[in-house]
Amino acid sequence: MNVLGIETSCDETAAAVVKDGKSILSSVVSSSLKYHTKYGGVIPEIAFRMQLETITQVSDAALRNANLKLDKIGLVSVTSGPGLLGSLLVGISFAKALSLAKNIPLNSVNHLYGHIYASFLDKSPVALPFVSLVVSGGHTSLFYVKDFDKISLLGSTHDDACGEAFDKVAKILGLGYPGGPIIEKFARGGNPKKIRFKCSDTNNPLDFSFSGIKTAVLYYLQDELRKNKKAKKPSLNLMRDIAASFQEAAVKTLINKSLLACKLKGIRRLVVGGGVAANNRLRDQFYDLAKASRAQVYFPDKALCMDNAAMVAGLGYRLFKKGHISSLDLNVALA
Ligand code: KG4
Ligand code: ZN
């Protein structure tokens, strides 16, 4: 079955066609990022206006790239949340209109579960059950996945998401938005052991907190600038060391907590997803440390770590096969 996926939860307008929940026939992602960069974050009003303007072209492009017409689509799958209210409404309204006009069944999926499903696209499936870490710009959560309709939350962030902390640290260093890829680039030339940054502890060891470490970076930078009164801005070496030391602390926390979750659940399979999963230091360290704990870790291809509609189409199919279906009174699910 060919499934058309629609994803509009944040700044992207994305559509994709996926066959039988596995093979990506097309995946189109249009981002309004360049309109947000000068504000240092996504402006919801700009995001949903751009999505309204582009959704039809993006969906048409996904069908064209897959060489299919709408009459060959067996299901429309759309993200219903979490995400930005106006943006989600654009995708949901569009998906409903297609479903009603062309009499195609409709399904809705959770965006975070979509990130988990990204590891199942164009790859052999991971055996159930498994533990999953979703680490993005809006969320940092650990899940126990018994099946795709039986997912329970093990822990999540109390404050900032990990990707958000990367974005804020980049902003503190004056490096632009989005911060993740820029921090990763700067970290490559820095010493990860230079500064001892640490993520705050949490009562539930499977929860996260990234707000304190971001403030620690700010204070460290201010101290360094105070010590060297002549310097108006940090040297390149200082920025590299801060980026590397911050990244190292964030990566260490993500890995330790994920492996702890595996240990507590007695599971040796771990699926990672979300924008931060594209980080090479995280991927390399995860592979090494998971091997040491005799766990198997799975990552999606890098392009599928970012928001995309292929994961939405794939998961929608999987849920449809298990008997799930949405009606035309489908609404946004913000939580
Ligand atoms: O999953 P995603 O595309 O959107 C959300 O659902 O939030 O994730 C975007 C986040 C941003 O915070 C971005 O800075 C971060 O993922 N990110 C990275 C990297 N690439 C993107 N963080 C660290 N290293 C990267 N290479
Ligand atoms: Zn996302």
Question: Your description of this structure?
Answer:
This protein has 335 residues and is α/β, with parallel strands linked by helices. The chain has two domains: 2-119 and 305-321, ATPase, nucleotide binding domain (Nucleotidyltransferase, domain 5), CATH 3.30.420.40; 125-299, Nucleotidyltransferase, domain 5 (2-Layer Sandwich), CATH 3.30.420.40. It has helices spanning 44-65, 85-102, 111-117, 162-172, 179-187, 211-227, 236-265, 280-292, 310-321; strands at 2-7, 12-19, 23-31, 75-81, 106-110, 130-135, 140-147, 150-156, 269-273, 296-298. It has a five-stranded mixed sheet, sandwiched between helices. Strand 7 (140-147) and strand 8 (150-156) form a beta hairpin. Helix 1 (44-65) runs parallel beside helix 2 (85-102), helix 3 crosses helix 9 and helix 5 (179-187) packs across helix 7. The radius of gyration is 20 Å and the shape is globular. The model has no long low-confidence stretch (mean pLDDT 96). It binds 5'-O-[(R)-(carboxyoxy)(hydroxy)phosphoryl]adenosine and zinc ion (ZN). 5'-O-[(R)-(carboxyoxy)(hydroxy)phosphoryl]adenosine is lined by residues 10, 136-138, 163-164, 166-167, 178-181, 184, 274-276, 278-279, 306-307. Zinc ion binds at residues 111, 115, 136, 274, 307.
